[in-house]
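Translate structure to sequence.
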């Protein structure tokens, strides 16, 4: 009996000891900030994962002034941002009522968000299969949330599933095989993280331009990429020259990345109101400075003046006009500042072969944001060659050339989204093809085999 009692007490002591160490380990897991969650562990509302450098945190939050729902998101750590600054949301379409939610790594290697009743409201639904039972979730200092198998292979990462914020290290990518773009989608409102009306991504048509769409309709575009910057934007060089464009033919992808010029934290946000805003951290105050906003005026709204229209803005007034040789499609609409119908050509182009009586020529519009739908002629290495190629092609409407920059661009579609920059040096010269009769009273064209001279 004494022996049995002793054994019973020993087992009880061991059980208490095991339970004590379990409590201690659980306390240490959350008391000391960790960046990793392992299989079998859960992150409950009120707990936090923190990246190694205390830059980002993963936790439950309620947006803005709303207390209507709880979301799992990645936010800047309070050491970085004095205000709640969200960069990614998991269950953006399925908020949790109350504070009973949790986040866990399942046995099959998925990351799930559970409500208070244990029901799944969001999951990674990873197509990859975990190689063993040691799947881990790690929050990196880049802001990337990575689900890895025991061999270090990536099963899923938040950078491949963005919400409204683009961070350095992410890719603005396009599948060049399927023409499917990775989209950054706005919140519905400042207090509602669900998908809003606006999205940002690479042009599915492969032009290497970044677009903002309003429910699928173009709202803004960056302009063509010249190898160093986007030529359709007037952006402080401090920020615009951090972009880089790459293509990976083996993966069938094209993408932009961004590397800050210094250690400053930068984020690009697709805002709920359709503005793309770039913020830079102010370290002294843990605040954020707005360094770039697009579209900044009405001329930057896509197609504001319609086809063959050009837009100018002096900071107070937006004005549309027709290109030389064109006139409003509807004078009545233009009379009430409805310019979307654009302009039409006054005189048809002369496309007769060997014509000498009614030659076509070019009118030069200096310092503009070049139109959309351009074609790049990689084999043409001179302006005269670019001009001649456009002149001899009846479907060519215009061309632009810069030897060490964009090379030879031509347009075989109606010209749309032309913005006349305030300072011509911010843009490029656009040469618009016109019938000779529309080129001015004193204009005539002298044409040889390889070149054209304009006498004014």
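Result:
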């Amino acid at each position: 009996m004494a022996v049995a009692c002793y054994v019973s007490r020993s087992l009880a002591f061991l059980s208490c000891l095991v339970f004590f160490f379990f409590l201690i380990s659980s306390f240490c897991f959350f008391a000391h900030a960790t960046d990793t969650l392992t299989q079998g562990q859960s992150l409950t509302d009120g707990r936090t994962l923190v990246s190694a450098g205390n830059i980002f945190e993963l936790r439950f939050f309620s947006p803005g002034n709303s207390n209507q729902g709880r979301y799992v998101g990645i936010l800047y750590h309070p050491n970085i941002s004095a205000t709640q600054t969200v960069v990614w949301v998991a269950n953006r379409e399925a908020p949790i009522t109350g504070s009973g939610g949790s986040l866990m790594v399942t046995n099959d290697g998925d990351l799930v968000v559970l409500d208070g009743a244990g029901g799944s409201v969001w999951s990674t639904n990873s197509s990859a299969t975990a190689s063993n039972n040691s799947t881990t979730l790690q929050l990196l200092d880049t802001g990337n949330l990575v689900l890895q198998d025991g061999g270090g292979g990536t099963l899923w990462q938040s950078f491949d599933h963005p919400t409204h914020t683009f961070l350095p290290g992410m890719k603005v990518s396009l599948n060049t095989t399927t023409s499917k773009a990775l989209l950054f989608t706005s919140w519905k409102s400042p207090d509602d993280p669900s998908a809003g009306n606006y999205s940002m991504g690479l042009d599915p048509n492969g032009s290497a331009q970044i677009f903002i769409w309003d429910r699928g309709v173009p709202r803004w575009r960056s302009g063509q990429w010249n190898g160093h910057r986007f030529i359709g934007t007037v952006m402080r060089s401090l920020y615009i020259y951090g972009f880089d464009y790459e293509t990976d033919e083996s993966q069938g992808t094209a993408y932009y990345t961004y590397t800050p010029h210094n250690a400053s934290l930068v984020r690009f946000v697709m805002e709920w109101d359709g503005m793309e805003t770039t913020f830079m951290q102010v370290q002294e105050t843990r605040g954020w400075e707005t360094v770039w906003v697009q579209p900044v005026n009405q001329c930057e709204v896509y197609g504001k003046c319609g086809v063959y229209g050009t837009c100018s803005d002096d900071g107070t007034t937006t004005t549309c006009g027709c290109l030389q040789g064109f006139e409003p499609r509807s004078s009545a609409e233009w009379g009430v500042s409805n310019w979307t119908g654009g302009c039409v050509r006054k005189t048809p182009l002369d496309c007769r072969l060997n014509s000498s009586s009614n030659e076509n020529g070019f009118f030069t519009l200096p310092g503009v944001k070049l139109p959309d739908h351009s074609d790049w002629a990689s084999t043409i290495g001179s302006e005269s060659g670019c001009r001649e190629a456009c002149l001899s092609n009846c479907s060519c409407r215009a061309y632009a050339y810069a030897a060490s920059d964009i090379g030879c661009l031509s347009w075989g579609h109606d010209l749309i989204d032309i913005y006349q920059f305030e300072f011509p040096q911010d843009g490029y010269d656009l040469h618009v093809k016109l019938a000779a009769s529309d080129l001015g009273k004193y204009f005539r064209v002298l044409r040889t085999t390889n070149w054209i001279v304009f006498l004014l």
